[in-house]
Automatic annotation (TrEMBL):
Keyword Acyltransferase: yes
Matching InterPro entries: ARM-like, ARM-type_fold, ARM_PUB, Armadillo, RING-Ubox_PUB, Ubox_domain, Znf_RING/FYVE/PHD
Pathway(s) where this gene product acts: Protein modification; protein ubiquitination
Organism superkingdom: Eukaryota
GO molecular function: ubiquitin protein ligase activity
Name under which the protein is recorded: RING-type E3 ubiquitin transferase
Reactions catalysed, as given in the entry: S-ubiquitinyl-[E2 ubiquitin-conjugating enzyme]-L-cysteine + [acceptor protein]-L-lysine = [E2 ubiquitin-conjugating enzyme]-L-cysteine + N(6)-ubiquitinyl-[acceptor protein]-L-lysine
Domain U-box: from-to ranges: 4-79
PANTHER family xrefs: U BOX DOMAIN-CONTAINING, U-BOX DOMAIN-CONTAINING PROTEIN 8
UniProt-listed Pfam families: ARM_PUB, U-box
Keywords, comma-separated and alphabetical: Acyltransferase, Repeat, Transferase, Ubl conjugation pathway
Length: 355
């Protein structure tokens, strides 16, 4: 077996096929027993780079490489040979960025055609290596990795597995990165939408720190229509979980969505309307918010009350009418105009209002 397997399956120290590959802080992989002997002998440098190591170096299991070695070694392995070769390129530390990107694209192409192939890829342990590519500074490699994740997420079993592997941990920082390529942020939002199809993932995504904040920030600051649409769709999907609606409203999603009405982003507003505390939060903004916040709160309330008798009743019960009377004296012309529009909507639904 030692003679026909790729060289990067062999430990750089023992030159034997690794049974328990681990990654050193230098980024290189060694068999656990070999690197532990190296450290036990008093060495405090990487055997390959010769750079100094921490006093207590961490040994991180390389699950992708371990699974790949097993796939190559077992005669009854179900992983297709072409997949093994592509995964081998992906997990090898000696592979170039362009060769990794090409492997990701081919894995995606094969996965898109065959659900059985997708299962093999997921079972091979390569997901961790794909997720690592999402952190790349190379936009081509990053987008190829995201596209493969999206394809793998087509299967419901994979959706839960990808979240367990740490997909959200990779996607959220990318969405928050304003310097990121718009297409990459768009695909990242699409992957979140796909993962959120499974109910349990909705709760997990919503509870993840800054996940909803990230989607709202893309809606607000996105450079292109595509990334904003994908962010709106992701927000719409995860907000079918009630607790996420509360989080989204508190993150300022309603006024941001209203600013994008007419650009195909109306779906997100639909979920915001069904959150019980939405009006109360907007009324709080009317009473205590900044001038800009008041403008957006007025727009949001106008949208919520249009053609909705139930929402009008909630707004009236919260004392919005009295607040509007005071806002008609505001120095800001936009505030006065938005206030007037809201009053007209309220009057249109309740002709008995004496204004």
């Amino acid at each position: 077996m030692n003679t026909h397997l790729p060289d990067h399956f062999k430990c750089p120290i023992s030159l034997e096929i690794m049974s328990d590959p681990v990654i050193l802080s230098s980024g290189h992989t060694f068999d656990r027993s070999s690197i532990q002997r190296w450290l036990h002998d008093g060495h405090r440098t990487c055997p390959i780079t010769k750079l100094p190591l921490p006093h207590h170096p961490s040994l991180i299991p390389n699950h992708a490489l371990r699974s790949l070695i097993a796939a190559f070694s077992l005669p009854d392995s179900k992983t297709p040979p072409e997949a093994c070769a592509l995964i081998s390129t992906l997990v090898s530390s000696s592979s170039t960025v362009s060769s990794k990107a090409q492997s990701l694209r081919l894995l995606r192409r094969f996965s898109a055609r065959d659900s059985a192939f997708r299962r093999c890829i997921s079972d091979s342990g390569v997901v961790s290596a794909v997720l690592a590519c999402v952190d790349s500074n190379d936009s081509s490699l990053q987008e190829s990795a995201l596209s493969l994740l999206l394809t793998l997420s087509l299967d419901d079993d994979n959706k839960v597995g990808l979240v367990a592997e740490g997909a959200i941990h990779r996607l959220v920082p990318l969405l928050l990165l304003r310097e990121a390529v718009p297409d990459c942020r768009a695909v990242a939002a699409t992957v979140l939408t796909s993962l959120a199809v499974v109910e349990v993932n909705k709760a997990t995504i919503g509870a993840y720190p800054n996940a909803i904040v990230a989607l709202v920030s893309v809606l607000r600051d996105g450079k292109g229509v595509r990334e904003r649409k994908e962010a709106a769709t992701a927000l719409y999907t995860i907000c079918s979980f009630p607790e996420n609606r509360r989080r989204a409203v508190k993150c300022g999603a309603v006024p941001v969505l209203l600013r994008n009405v007419g650009s195909g982003l109306e779906r997100g507003v639909e979920e915001m309307e069904s959150y019980d505390g939405c009006v109360q939060i907007l009324v709080h903004v009317l009473r205590n918010g900044s001038c800009r916040g008041i403008q957006y709160a007025l727009l949001a309330l106008t949208s919520l009350c249009t053609n909705s008798e139930e929402m009008v009743m909630v707004v009236l019960e919260e004392g919005v009418l009295e607040i509007c009377v005071g806002l008609m004296e505001n120095d800001n012309e936009k505030v006065r105009r938005n206030t007037s529009n809201l009053i007209q909507v309220l009057r249109g639904n309740h002709h008995w209002i004496g204004l």
